[in-house]
Amino acid sequence: MSAKRTLSIRPDPGGVVPETAMVMAAGLGKRMRPLTATRPKPLVEVAGRTLLDHVFDRLRSAGVKRAVVNVHYLADALEAHLKNRVEGIEVAISDERGRLMETGGGIVQARALIGDQPFLVVNSDNLWLDGPSDAIRMLAARWDDATMDALLLMVPLARAHNHGGQGDFSLSPEGRITGRRKQGRIAPFVYTGVQILSPRVIADWPEGPFSTMLFWERAIAAGRAYGLVHQGLWFDVGTPPAITATEALIADG
Questions:
Q1: What are phi and psi of 162, to 5 degrees?
Q2: What is the per-residue DSSP string for 26-93?
Q3: Cα 108 from chain centroid?
Q4: Which residues pair with 23 in a beta bridge?
């Protein structure tokens, strides 16, 4: 059976997939040096395709119609790649050439392009493979706008390939995020870099660059932040050695 045929018969979990995704692509990629000396990290290749292309493959497969991509480091190369290599998804650029705004500030700067509906946020420097169902569609099926402001795709720490950290969050049995990892302790789940956010979270932001963690902490405090456990594979591709390890794991199935 062909890969295309296999994909077509995967179960659809239902749910309305957000039409718009914010693709975070403005980082400096310092841990990926020397590969990022001449290219932005999203254009580093893993398993024959750039990290950015892997992300757009997943967005396209899930049915996302539009992507807002923020750019800063080597922005011209990123824009050229998006123009010449990305098909099937409308692309808008959020230009951070003048100042890198970090994740939260990047969302704020792009808010007019994002619109007023729940939207995806995807880090362009991570790589995941879907499990029995499309991971983005699973997020969409789990999303409940009445009770959620943030829904993060997570992976158990034990399955966070190449990840050197000690986890990020804890979850209740029903999937509510109960807290962040405390210093000196281990948290059972790692954030994959994929999430759905409500535009409600974009409020009362500080001036200048800041992390999305500000929005998450508010949602956690309000009991409106949830996590969904990824059923497929996820790889932390943050350093050159991680590329080789990731490619070996993919080749081994």
A1: 70, 5
A2: ----GGGTTGGGSS-GGG-EETTEEHHHHHHHHHHHHT--EEEEEE-TTHHHHHHHHHHH--SSEEEE
A3: 17
A4: 69, 122
pTM to 2 decimal places: 0.92
Longest dimension (CA), the chain: 54
Strand-pair category, 160-161 with 233-235: parallel
Rounded CA Rg of the chain: 17
Matching residue, tokens 């943050």: 238
Average pLDDT over residues 110-130: 94
Contact 27, 41 (CB under 8 A): yes
Q: Which helix (H) or strand (E) holds 128?
A: strand 127-129
Q: Is the dihedral of CA 22, 145, 233, 173 positive or negative?
A: positive
Mean pLDDT over each residue of the chain, to the nearest integer: 92
Does residue 178 contact residue 170 with C-beta atoms inside 8 Å?
Answer: yes
Among 33-42, 52-61, 173-182, 224-233, the range scoring the smallest mean pLDDT is 173-182
- From CA 182, how far away is CA 169, in angstroms rounded? 9
Q: 224 is written with which tokens?
A: 């409106």
Query: DSSP secondary-structure letter at 43?
Result: G
Do 35 and 80 touch, CB atoms closer than 8 A?
no
Q: What are phi and psi of 234, to 5 degrees?
A: -140, 140
Sheet holding 160-161, edge to edge: 127-129, 233-235, 160-161
Q: Which residues are registered as beta bridge partners of 189?
A: 156, 169
**Residue at 164: amino acid letter:** G
